[in-house]
Design brief:
- This protein is α+β, with helices and mostly antiparallel strands and about 200 residues long.
- The chain has one domain.
- The chain contains 5 helices and 5 strands.
- The chain has a 5-stranded antiparallel sheet.
- A hairpin with a 2-residue loop joins strand 2 and strand 3.
- The radius of gyration is 19 Å and the shape is elongated.
Length: about 200
């Protein structure tokens, strides 16, 4: 069960702030770009492009509009599950390179936050798969490119979940949109010796 305030006997073990930690932001964006390119290769193996000029205006407009709508839906789904678990105000915004939804007064359990983080990529991914299956082949790339954005754009969500899985079950997560904090109950501690970003070189 989520809380709208931090319970007693919980202590901070980790804070992630993309605005301050440029190293994490840089590497996550780079990994996201690589994932997007790999997704494109997979799409090409499924449906090779023989003539890029075969795309008509409607498909291009659908792609552009779809990418915009996707960003909105992604954050709305985050917000829906935040509100489902905690009845506090959700704040929305956009910072430099990313849109976000957060809840300053929300403290979510480990299981709840995993659902919050993964819900957009899973639900929107399922919808996009259905569109690729049931729409004419000429529309494949218009929606597969959005699928690539769906998978690659969630690298930040994957990252925070990897770190969260190192925490004990008695963990609460506070996410204000661009920064988050992990709190664990009394008698528990966490070591982040295997932070995946630590394997990447420092920025000069």
């Amino acid at each position: 069960m989520a809380f709208n305030h931090l319970p007693e006997n919980y202590h901070l073990t980790r804070e992630i702030d993309m605005r301050k930690d440029k190293r994490i932001a840089f590497w996550l964006n780079l990994v996201g770009t690589l994932v997007f390119l790999v997704t494109g290769v997979v799409g090409y193996l499924i449906h090779p492009v023989t003539d890029w000029m075969s795309f008509d205006l409607y498909q291009v407009l659908a792609l552009v509009l779809g990418l915009f709508v996707y960003i909105i839906l992604h954050e709305l789904i985050h917000a829906f599950f935040m509100r489902l678990f905690c009845k506090a105000k959700v704040n929305f915004g956009f910072h430099t390179y990313a849109a976000y939804a957060g809840m300053k007064q929300g403290y979510f359990t480990k299981a709840e936050y995993i659902i919050i983080a993964l819900a957009p990529v899973v639900l929107l991914g399922a919808v996009l798969v259905c569109l690729n299956i049931f729409l004419p082949e000429s529309w494949f790339w218009a929606f597969f490119i959005i699928q690539g954005q769906n998978i690659a754009g969630a690298v930040g969500d994957y990252y925070v979940i990897i770190l969260l899985l190192k925490n004990p079950r008695k963990t609460l997560v506070n996410d204000d949109g661009m920064s988050m904090r992990y709190y664990v109950g009394e008698g528990h501690s966490v070591r982040y010796d295997e932070d995946p970003v630590d394997d990447f070189p420092d920025l000069q």
